[in-house]
Structures are given as C-alpha cells and as structure tokens.
Amino acid sequence: MEALIKALPKAELHVHLEGTLEPEHILALAERNHISLPYASAEEVLAAYDFTDLPSFLKLYYAGMAVLQTEQDFYDLAFAYFEKAAAENIVYVEPFFDPQAHTSRGISFDTVINGIYRAQLDAAAMLGLKCNLIMCFLRDMSAESAMQHLELSLPYRQWIIGVGLDSDEKGNPPSKFAAVFAKARKAGYKLTMHCDVNQDNSLQHIHECLHKIDVDRIDHGINSLESDELCELIAERGIGLTVCPVSNRFCVNDLTGNEIRKMLAKGMFATVNSDDPAYFRAYLSDNLQALADDAAFTAEEIVTLVRNSFLACWLPDFLKRPYLLRIDHIANKFIQTSGVAA
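User: That's the sequence. What structure does it adopt?
Assistant: Structure tokens below.
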C-alpha cells in the first residue's frame, strides 16, 4: 500500500500554507526577524502543541504565524511546502492562505501574495508542481473585513482561483458572509467554505453552504452524513468534500474512516488532505497511509480517494484527464502485479 500511495500522482485541495510552518522553520524565522519566542528548540515547540479541539488548535496556530514578517518569509513558507509536496508525488495543489491573519498584524496584503506567488512560479519551474491559490476569510472577523480583503485581492485576480472561509465557526455561519461570496462569484472566483467536524450548528452551516452560498466545494463536511437530503444534494451536484483524517483524529479523537467510507458509498466526492500538516504531524501521504493502516482501506478505496481529488479540483477537464489516466494505469498495474486485492 505504501508503494501504491507513493506511485500515484496526487492533488491536495485542503492545506493551509500557514499550517505547513514546521517548528524548525518557526525558530529560524524568529531568529531572522529578531522575534523572541518562549522555546529554545523544535522539541519545545512540539511539546506546546497541546490541542484537543478547534479553538485550542487555532490559538496555537495564530501564535505560530507571528514569525512571518517579510515577502521572503512568505516565499520560504510556501516553497518549503511545495518541496515536501513534490517529494510525495503531489502534482497539483490548491492551498489556502489567510491574509487577514497577517494584515491584522501590520503586514501588507502585497507582501503576503507576492511572496507566495514567487514561490508558485519557482515550484512550477523547478519542481513541476502546479498550484492555484485559494484566499480564505476568517469567519471570526467581520464581514466588512472580509469584503475589504476581497477588494484587496482583485488586482491579483489572475493569481487566485477561489475564496474560502475558515477559523472559528461558533456564532459565525456562512450566511454572515453571503454578500462577500456573492461578489466573489461575480468576480469569477470559485467558492468553498469550511464546515468543520462536530461544531455548533454544523448541519445548518452545510445547509447554508448549499442553499444560500451555492458553494463549489465544502471543506471537511463530515456532518453532512446526518442528513440524507444533504448527502443526495452534494452527490447530485458533484460537490467535492475535502476531508482531513489525521486532523479529525486530533480535533474529535476519530480518524473518521467509517464516515469517509459512507461518503464513498453514497457517491459523494470525498477527498483526503492534510489540513495543517506541521501541527498534526502528517502530510497527505501520511493521511492516506493512516486510512490504510488504521481503518483498513483497500487499494481500490485509496485509488478512488486520489481520483476524487482531481475530479473535485478546479482545473479544466482537459488538464484533469491526463492525471486520471495516469492514476488508472498505475492502479491497474499495481493490483495486477502486487497480489494486493482491490
């Protein structure tokens, strides 16, 4: 199974660039930018990762990104992730970035986007990795702030494929940002929103995503399984669900393997992703391997999840097709020659 996962070309649709900031990189950037931290080693940083739910994770997450100060910092952040992705045979990625988390600290939008974009160009040229950015709004900030950042993004429209919504869901439903997402749609952006696992009003938030926002994709979305109507609608519309198993295990003490299987059985486009891999200590291949090891996912199920990531991504169909053909070729060869049952 490890060989199959390694050989398959993969796409990642749910990874926060700020969540790829490894402990060693945090320390290096703190030193470069003359920022004092309460940690003397990477081990001490890791020891501080004591989170068991979404709010406790977010507290550490936002504290960690304070070391990002300059355009070069954002370049280094993004390119380090792109290198890891390419090493895992990830060939396409649609990563999130959170500009409000930086502009609220006095870092300009231009600084953030220019650093990340330079890394994208170098990743394409040096690693053969294709990337399209998704700009996320922080749902625990105001809709007015989200609209301001949407306006800031428009001069860079050709660099950003879509917009999303993340951070603390409590008291921050999708409908709060309906006007922002309607304007983003008119500007040509694709739309996605986080509906994290077992949050307050999770089912209502998914309902709003589908009926009030008309999203193209849903991030996480596990709680949709509580409603046959929502499951049928998600399957009918072909809406991708970007599930993050190891992240779920940290935040809700469950890999959610059974739920992912149910999604596949219902014809829903479940995909597997890493979320914030530096914090959850698992990149995309680790998430797929965890499903194989801990939830007994078969080769056929793993291949389906990998195919779904390309089916649910925002590339045009003619660019998806070669990846899907390559996946099928590798999967057929593996199953025929390895003796591993599909």
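The chain has a mean pLDDT of 95.
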